[in-house]
Amino acid sequence: MPELPEVESVRRTLEPHLLGARIERAHLRRRDICHGSCTDIGLLVGATIVKLRRHGKQLAIIGSSAISKTGRRAVQENDRAIVIHLGMSGQLFIERGDELSRTHVHCVWTVRGANSSTTTRLIFRDPRRFGGLWTGKWKWVIGEHWTDLGPDAATIDAGILGRRLAGSRQTIKAALLDQEVLAGVGNIYADESLHRAHLHPETIAGALGPDAIKRLAKAVREALAEAIDAGGSTLRDYRNGDGETGKQQLRLAVYGRGGKRCFQCNAPLLSGTVAQRTTIWCPTCQRAAR
Ligand SMILES: [Zn+2]
Question: What residues have their beta carbon closer than 5 A to ion ligand 1?
Fold first, then answer.
């Protein structure tokens, strides 16, 4: 499923198409994927897109009806937002070709770019329907919808991570997957970060000492940054906002490589279930060290 690097890649690839653009029409094809106000106003019809924001694995399109042309100004509390959860298989992209004829297209926005005489279409499709749209004011997104999420993993530092993990009796794998602890890491980048930090996935999170926390915070940031640079990982459905696949799946050190050799030490990688998820680790490089 799309994790932080994939959602960030969607955000970055959509920005040139959407910033300053005005939404002319919205066609919600499946009502049950939309939460909150799913009227034209809720779906930002008539609004100019002023910002695309991401927190963890969630993306917000923020629109204002108070401005019409440039769209470039700071976000204000009363601006409206659509928060998009991509779930397991969601895609948000600019239409190229005949995507509207594809199945599982749940919402289509017709968008006129800043200073443009032509319109383009923004498409949300979600074949497995674990994602969806949440609409409301930006004030609500910040004050309620995103309040239960932990700090964004892309910029996590050791001090904050240490406080998030203090006293935790979860395994470190479970803690990394817990969006209330840290927002943005899923199964791929949890395994990649733990390998990079030389930590066994079943280490108890609250037992990590300062050196291990420091290594882990750095490993999470680096694993995510590398993946963002590669445009994310495409294992099945993921595509960026231009409909292109990512490349990070070709460079993963452990995820999806159970039984193959560790690139660092040549030991066969182990596979097991930790935190109810398939987990891959190196028995030599990754220790329950403090
Ligand atoms: Zn190894």
Answer: 262, 264-265, 282, 284-285
